[in-house]
Design goal:
This protein is mainly alpha-helical. The protein has helices at about 5-30, 30-90, 95-175, 180-190, 215-225; strands at about 200, 205, 230, 240. Helix 1 (about 5-30) runs antiparallel to helix 3 (about 95-175).
Length: about 250
């Protein structure tokens, strides 16, 4: 392949612009704000799940407390009824009197036990409500941090996009100075070799693979016409000759 030396030199300008675009794209993909957003979104998901679990626990404890309080009321009602019978003097025999007194004592113990259950449930419910409150506070804080991180991300991306836009405009202008066949080869090699399709030959070394060329290859390149497109024998990238090539 042949191309005017000036056109070949423009490949270096094109490569620099493409490298800048690749660097900007990498920066855009790896902004620290993106990691912050991912972390905060994951935390918000955890907090939302924890809130649902805590609120469910509060609801379950509400039902459990109502049931326990109903049990207390039932026992209290029965004990009050028996106490009224006892106080009324309607119980005739000593045996019935003793039985009624024993039942009242049993009901009072049962009521005391049930009231302890109610208190224990109330404590658990209070703890669960405290978790809900704390989690909602954490959720609010994380949402604020997420919004702030999103704003920083948008600002950083806008700056990158503006720089990329100017670089793309410059690239379009430079690419017009490169023949289509040479440009197509360059693009193909860029895709094959990590975004670098052309490199300078600097002091006898390829700046693409950073390997020194042997004497035979250097002599061949030295003898090549100025418009001949030469390739690195090691990495196969297009080599651009300059006054600093060492030829």
């Amino acid at each position: 392949m042949k191309a005017a030396p000036e056109a070949q030199l423009r490949l270096i300008d094109l490569q620099e612009l493409d490298t800048t675009l690749d660097r900007l794209a990498h920066r855009r993909r790896t902004l620290p704000e993106l990691a912050d957003i991912e972390r905060l979104e994951a935390r918000l998901t955890e907090v939302r799940d924890a809130i649902v679990a805590a609120e469910t626990e509060v609801g379950d404890l509400d039902r459990e407390q109502r049931k326990a309080e109903q049990d207390v009321d039932q026992v209290r009602t029965r004990a009050d009824r028996d106490q009224k019978r006892l106080d009324s003097g309607q119980v005739g025999s000593a045996k019935d009197l003793s039985s009624l007194q024993a039942e009242i004592a049993s009901l009072q113990r049962r009521q005391s036990d049930l009231e302890e259950v109610v208190l224990e449930i109330m404590e658990r419910r209070e703890e669960a409500e405290g978790r809900v409150t704390a989690l909602r506070t954490e959720q609010s804080t994380a949402q604020e941090e997420l919004a702030a991180a999103g704003g920083r991300r948008d600002e950083a991306q806008q700056k990158i996009d503006e720089e990329a836009g100017m670089t793309s405009t410059a690239r379009t202008a430079v690419a017009k100075d490169v023949p289509d066949d040479l440009l197509a080869l360059y693009e193909k090699l860029r895709g094959q070799f990590g975004g670098v399709g052309a490199a300078k030959l600097y002091r006898g070394a390829c700046q693409g693979c950073h390997l020194a060329l042997n004497t035979v290859d250097l002599n061949r390149m030295r003898a090549a016409d100025g418009d001949e497109v030469i390739r690195c024998e090691e990495c196969r990238r297009i080599l651009i000759r300059t006054p600093e090539s060492g030829l």
